[in-house]
Structures are given as C-alpha cells and as structure tokens.
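Final report, Chapter 2: Outcomes

The project's central promise was a pipeline that accepts a single protein chain and returns its three-dimensional structure in a standardized token representation, suitable for archiving and comparison. That pipeline is now operational. To close this chapter, we reproduce one record exactly as it appears in the project archive, with the input sequence first and the structure output second.
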Amino acid sequence: MKMEEMKGGGPITYILTALTALGGAFILALLLTLGSETTWLTGLTIGLLIGLSISLKIGMNYLFENSKLQLYFITIGYHLVSYLIAGIIIGAWQS
C-alpha cells in the first residue's frame, strides 16, 4: 500500500465516526432498557450479541472483497471490544 492510500479522511470523517459510535451506544442503551433488570452483566451480554452480529455482517463484506483474514479479525475485534465495554458501562450506570 502506498502512503497516499493509507491517509485517513479530514475532520468530517472523525466527526461522523464519533456520531456513529454515539448512535451505536444509544441503540445499545435502548436495548438494555427493554429488559426487566439492567446490570453490568446484562450490558456485557447484549454488547456481546450486538458485537457478534456486526462482526458476522462485516464478514460477508470480507468474503466478497477477498481481504486478508488478519484484517477481518482486527476490524471485528474493535467492534467486539467497543460494544462489550459500552455494554458494561451502560449496564452498570443504569442499575
């Protein structure tokens, strides 16, 4: 890969990335309010399920793009960890 291909977007890219992360956390919080009891453990469970669901959907893209498996694991690792942490924080905060 050339350096030109690896450059990230401008400020708007980072703003939109932050907004999509907040949107995902908001949906996670909404899902946690549907249950009868909200704890850090339910937050962890729902976060794991959302992270796995997103990871599987991303996997479809990687199959069609013929990307490297290592890149897939890096990408899904980010989503899994972020939803697990968000689920724990939101679950503990709502209890």
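Archive annotation: Residues 40-65 form the longest helix (26 residues).
This record, like all others produced under the grant, will remain available to the consortium after the project formally closes.
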